[in-house]
Every structure is written in structure tokens, then in C-alpha cells.
Amino acid sequence: MSLLVSEPEFEQAYKELELTLENSSLFKKNPEYRTALKVVSVPERIIQFRVVWEDDAGNLQVNCGYRVQFNSALGPYKGGLRLHPSVNLSILKFLGFEQIFKNALTGLMMGGGKGGADFDPKGKSDAEIRRFCCSFMRELSRHIGADTDVPAGDIGVSGREIGYMFGAYRRERNKFEGVLTGKGLDWGGSLIRPEATGFGLVYYVTHMIELAGAGNWEGKRVAISGSGNVAQYAALKCIELGATVVSLSDSKGSLVAVGDGQVTVEDIEAVMGLKVKRKPLSEYAAKDNLKYIDGARPWIHVSQVDVALPCATQNEVSREEALALVAGGTKFIAEGSNMGCTLEAIEVFENERRQKKGEAIWYAPGKAANCGGVAVSGLEMSQNSQRLAWSKEEVDQRLKDIMKNAFTLGLNTAKNYVDLSEGELPSLVAGSNIAGFVKVAQAMLEHGDWW
């Protein structure tokens, strides 16, 4: 009997990578890479610690803090910090594992890691969040640095939390360095960073639409889940490019367009205000254009859409919802969240792609489609190293170039390692997985990490 605790999220992420590698010609051409897969699937280091902080009533509270430093073959560990009651090692290992290959696809010098705590910022005062962040960083500061490990924000970690943590790091280590990304613009942050994941997702899908011969975003109906940064800025960019957004959601329910209605810029701005106050979508008094559906995700409620962008959390598109999207005529689905689709949902999309060829739905995994956020984090690191700040236009252009390169790399790698029949669109999940894995494995080989 195994003594290892079950880690379902991590096991799912590993299985997705393993299946795509096994179903390609990679191991036939390079059988030694099987050894690399064994090595890369084990974190270089896992740090677990207690976080003791005082609430406003003067009571001591205790949470578990973590940092999974998964792989540093391509550069310093890079990945977000998540503050949420659901945080555990399985979730952080899955996120860190995905982050290795996502970061590789950006072309920047970044390894993969992830961290956080089972602390819930919702319902906490600013003072309580500050005390928690300072206590959390007092321990984490021993293990990170600008050339070692550079965390960023994730669920539950906004600019406010990054500010508290950066201040704590500066005081503890007596250093002002680019140790966190997502910082304030006056003290080392980068323009476009809040928008980067959502904007990058739309830039990536633009290349999918163009290559598939489906024109551009003009007139496309787009279903989006989530209502945080990724969903907000993806929605704004879609609207800017002429698309119609028909949904947003949070963990409690969904806002879905009624009839010919749509999510407007004004709706998104109002949702941004709610999220700053950490309030649910159910408190938004939508006009006649939207209805709130309690306890539901949007996918089976949006009728026909051209593009689906899961931007909330892991496993938010099930097999049944995947079938509903296919039945509704969806042509493109790309993950703005990490591992947004279950393995069963991905199987639905990939089977459709193989059977219906150019007429099928085309799926893009999060490690490629949502790499824009960490890409601009990497650009923030570069700006910090130079003690410079780039213009909005320069950062945005670099983001566009990175997303184009990530798309092209996954596309071409799929063509090289996965058999295609005539008229069949290449598998972006296979191509992205293989491309990211090979880049990391080759670096590890050259470092002597496996042989």
C-alpha cells in the first residue's frame, strides 16, 4: 500500500502531459526523454511553514504557508502566490508543474514554482490582511530573491497584498530588489501587468481564428467565465476588437446575457468595483441585458457562442459542458485559467478536432494561451534588473510578440511530432506540452540533472 497522499490535481496535470508525450512520436525519436519526465515531475524543493498572525480581536490565528520550487533549469523559480482556503500541496504542485512549461513557452529565462497559504482574504480587514502578509513573508523571505525565486500574485493576491509582502521583504532582508512582480508602478511594477493575462489570451486566440480562416473578432459571440483580472481584461479586449461578450461568473454563479443583450464596458467596470470590495457578482444589479444564475457556470446557459474562454479556476469545464459547447457551435476554446478543462473535456475537444477537422472546435491549453501574465512578469523582472520602466506601448508589443511565438511554437511542434490527416488542425495541447517539455528537459540534460 502506498504511503503517498493522493494529489488529484497534480496527478491530473501530470497525466495530461504524459498522455500527450506518449501519443506523439517524441519518445520514439528520443527514448531518453522518458528519464527526463521522471525527473521533472518531482519538485526540486518544497517549503512548508506555519503563519501565525493576530486578528482585529487580538486572537492568534494559524495558517499553513507553502512554496513549491519545482524547476529552475531555465531561470529563477517563477509563479504566483495563492491565498484561498482550498490551497494544499496537490493544488500548488499542479500549478507549479504547469508553470514550468508555461514559462518555457514564453521564451524568457524563468523556472517554475508556486506558493501560497490556506488563508481566506474575504471578510478580513486591511489590518488583518497586512498582519497576515507580513507574517507570511517573514518566513518566505528566507527562501526567495531576485536571482532565486520571484513570486507574483494569484487568486487572493492583488496589488494590495503584493505591497504588504514587498514591504515586509524589504524590512526583513534590507534589500530593495525585484523579488516580487505585480508591484506598484512607483516602486518597480510594469505597465500592462494587470491586463497581461487577459490581453495575452485574446492575442493568442486571434492567431487561432486567423489560421482557421475564421476572420477576426468582429461579430464573434464570446462566453467568458470568471470575473477577476483575467476575465475582466479579456472581456474588455474582446469588446475593443468588435466581439460580443455574453457572460461572466464567480464561484457562486453566473451573469449571462438575455436575448440580444451583452456584457458592456459599463458592466465590467461595475464588476471591477465589486471585486475590489471582494463582493460576489450576485450583488450586481444588472440591467435587462443580463440575468444572474445562482450556482451555475455559464457554459450550458449561453446558447450559441463562437469562442469560449474559461478564466476562473481549474476544472471549470466538464465533459458535459464540453459537449454542450460543441453542440452550440463553439469553434474556439482557450484557457485563461490554469487547467480550466477536465481531461474528459479535453478528450471531447480533441476527438472533435480529429473527426471534423477544419470544421471542429479548436482547443488551446492554459500553459500556452494564458502565459501572457507570467510573460509580463518576466518583463517586469527585466525592467527591474535595468532599473528602467518601459512604456505601455513597448510592453504591449512585447506581449503580442511573445503570444505569437508561443502559438507558432506549439503549432509547429505539433506538426513535427503528431500525425495529421489532411485538413486537420494541429493539436495545440500536444504541441505546447511537447515544446515546453523538450526545452526544459534539454536544459536539464545540459546541466547534468539527468543523463
From TrEMBL:
Residues that coordinate or bind NAD(+): T197, N229
Any one annotated GO CC term: cytosol
CDD domains (UniProt xref): NAD_bind_2_Glu_DH
GO BP term (any one): glutamate biosynthetic process
GO MF annotations in UniProt: glutamate dehydrogenase (NADP+) activity; nucleotide binding
Site (Important for catalysis) location in chain: D154
Catalytic activity as recorded in UniProt: L-glutamate + NADP(+) + H2O = 2-oxoglutarate + NH4(+) + NADPH + H(+)
Entry keyword set: Acetylation, NAD, NADP, Nucleotide-binding, Oxidoreductase
InterPro entries named in the record: Aminoacid_DH-like_N_sf, Glu/Leu/Phe/Val/Trp_DH, Glu/Leu/Phe/Val/Trp_DH_C, Glu/Leu/Phe/Val/Trp_DH_dimer, Glu/Leu/Phe/Val_DH_AS, Glu_DH, Glu_Leu_Phe_Val_DH, NAD(P)-bd_dom_sf
NCBIfam families assigned: PRK09414.1
Name of the protein described by the UniProt record: Glutamate dehydrogenase
Organism: Chaetomidium leptoderma
